[in-house]
Amino acid sequence: xxxxxxxxxxxxxxxxxxxxxxxxxxxxxxxxxxxxxxxxxxxxxxxxxxxxxxxxxxxxxxxxxxxxxxxxxxxxxxxxxxxxxxxxxxxxxxxxxxxxxxxxxxxxxxxxxxxxxxxxxxxxxxxxxxxxxxxxxxxxxxxxxxxxxxxxxxxxxxxxxxxxxxxxxxxxxxxxxxxxxxxxxxxxxxxxxxxxxxxxxxxxxxxxxxxxxxxxxxxxxxxxxxxxxxxxxxxxxxxxxxxxxxxxxxxxxxxxxxxxxxxxxxxxxxxxxxxxxxxxxxxxxxxxxxxxxxxxxxxxxxxxxxxxxxxxxxxxxxxxxxxxxxxxxxxxxxxxxxxxxxxxxxxxxxxxxxxxxxx
Length: 359
Known about the structure:
Layout: H1 3-12, H2 21-35, E1 41-47, E2 50-56, E3 62-70, E4 84-86, E5 89-91, H3 95-113, E6 121-126, H4 137-142, E7 147-153, E8 162-166, E9 168-177, H5 193-207, E10 219-227, E11 237-246, H6 252-260, E12 266-273, E13 276-277, H7 283-296, E14 302-305, H8 311-316, E15 321-323, E16 328-329, E17 337-339, H9 343-357
Parallel strand pairs: 3-6, 3-7, 7-15, 8-14
Antiparallel strand pairs: 1-2, 2-6, 4-5, 5-17, 8-13, 9-11, 9-12, 10-11, 16-17
Helix pairs in contact: 1-3, 3-9, 7-9
């Protein structure tokens, strides 16, 4: 077992879920211990209890390339917290999302720390990506003052694709107000809030038709519906929640405007996050493709992704960013695994990429 995989298994032993700050602290300390070698500058930031680690080779906040990954995870059943190696698959929470990448990036910095002339790179490792990243990457870029020419976020992409764009996120609540009455005499002034909201939702479905397969279009998922009190009353309030994923052809303002055009409902934004949009002809991307094709002996494509990542914060600041990672499957499920045989090639690609670009 190579050094990166051993580090990954160690990292997976920490249950770094949002509700477990003690484990997040222990994991952060373990990461810093592995980065604490000669030639490395390691800084820790804590924002609203969320820990971020930045490692560089010089006393700066502006570097040529930043590599980013996160060490927080979503919850799992008790048995799935224990790493289980089955052939080429390392199963367990965090294996694919995203501790294999954290281990590789720590090892990347250790590798270059041994060199006399060190490259102009750094890593950002955060503990709040699974809860929107406001106190991690967003804070580091917009409050702590970090910047770079290019960012590689090791948290997305399949089949070695380089992801140059992903959708934005808009979560909204739609609600309707009715008039209560006894269910047996609903005609006596009753106005059913559920019926009003269901009628409005049929208009929502026209705005965002259901997809039968993957397509680069704006989508809306009905995630939650709640209404009513006792069964023998006409409900006077109803609400539903939508999770909308929009392409670069849409925007929060445009979508909310369409929703507010539906009669009989109120619209409230709950949360939102922007797109990732990077020109696929960026010279850093071209070099990453060359490095990947050299190591993997296969053609590499640029692609898009439907989910959202912390890469959006780089993109919003005008920093070209992409997603790229080792191969795995089942993030946020109890089938999650990383293909161990792809971790070392991922590391080798990054080494070649840095050698060709970072001065």
